[in-house]
């Protein structure tokens, strides 16, 4: 029986990709990447194929091409293993090419950069606290356990804690109240060291770092310093090369030029890492985002976002990258409302068609803002889109002749054995939305959708009963206590940064 699933046609031709790549290689060779710190530039002196020109690093085309070809040849499952990718419960990260004959499972990761929260009782946007984060982590874990398509994690940084320990606290909370692995930002070397110690307690072996590229064509020196620190000390790390170019603002408004600049930035960062640490697993992904000229702001959830994500995925695939670029389902709305629903739903559907299987920033409204209500709605959106991506099994019409005759006799198919056995696998059963007729709705006097969502949030938090085993809990608390003591102590009048 053949499964029919929705598909998007490839948009960039082989010639398009080769032209974009050729322009990117020219930029890497002739313009290079800016590295303003001389001590960081000096780390690249003497590497064959690397030239230091003023404050820029330039790389010979043959060197870059060789690294790209090596990356393409690497076995993707082995790269997953090298990068420390953990298998997640109830998940499948099938490639789009392999989806046609197998079941698709979309999943959602909660927002993990929140500094503010939409208060569940008042709709006030206020700074997020440590107590909030414990409750929100319990919420995500309870939703996961109840079958919602979300994995757990702590969704932000407690604003009532000293800034240097916020990331350490985020990891601790996620580990203590959530059954699935949690991801956190590594803002400083000192915080990363404490987080790595906690990861070892939890049995995680790789420290995931990022080398971030500023636009246009400049490295983020702070992220490079963090990567070098852990490379020099032999930590088991993996590194992803990332950036956030804005079409028409920090990248050319012409699509071809923006894609070429974006590719050049990622290829330069990728080459830097291959030179510095040839044995460290490195992944790359190319991204490009929309911009709002009226407000001079990134246009989260704009219609252009999905279009750009699809093109960036094709270019990332060309280089052998693993991740689906721009898996975010952001919105520019500040509260859970109609704008958020439209932007997130349309973006999620288009990106799923483009190949995204794991979505991020569940529960985010505006950048930096987490809403528990929005998280439940985002789960419903991903569940909805997942059903669309399942398509239908076609079968052979001649196999159904007897069923059709049975329907003719009965006048309906509702009470046939076929409907009884297959309706649950055919029709989506929502957690939140409903398909009731008007009269039922009028007679039952249901809560409106937002009120129903808030009820689910409260029920899930109350239902949550998971706590990390005492031995590991105590080890995390001891590491955290040490982190608070060391990172919150002023040194030369300043806190550790």
Could you write a compact summary of the structure shown?
The chain has 497 residues and is α/β, with parallel strands linked by helices.
Structure description:
- The chain has helices at 14-31, 38-42, 61-73, 76-82, 130-145, 166-177, 189-201, 221-232, 255-276, 303-318, 338-354, 372-390, 401-410, 417-426, 438-444, 449-463, 470-487; strands at 3-4, 33-34, 50-53, 56-59, 107-110, 116-118, 125-127, 207-214, 218-219, 237-243, 282-284, 291-292, 297-298, 358-362, 369-370, 392-393.
- Strand 6 (116-118) and strand 7 form a beta hairpin.
- It is globular.
- By secondary structure, it is α/β, with parallel strands linked by helices.
- It has 17 helices and 16 strands.
- The strands form 6 sheets. A 4-stranded mixed sheet has the order 9-8-10-11, sandwiched between helices. Strands 2-4-3 form a 3-stranded antiparallel sheet. The protein has a 3-stranded mixed sheet with strand order 7-6-15.
- The chain starts with a strand and ends in a 10-residue tail after the last helix.
- It has a single domain (14-390), classed as TIM Barrel (Alpha-Beta Barrel), CATH 3.20.20.480.
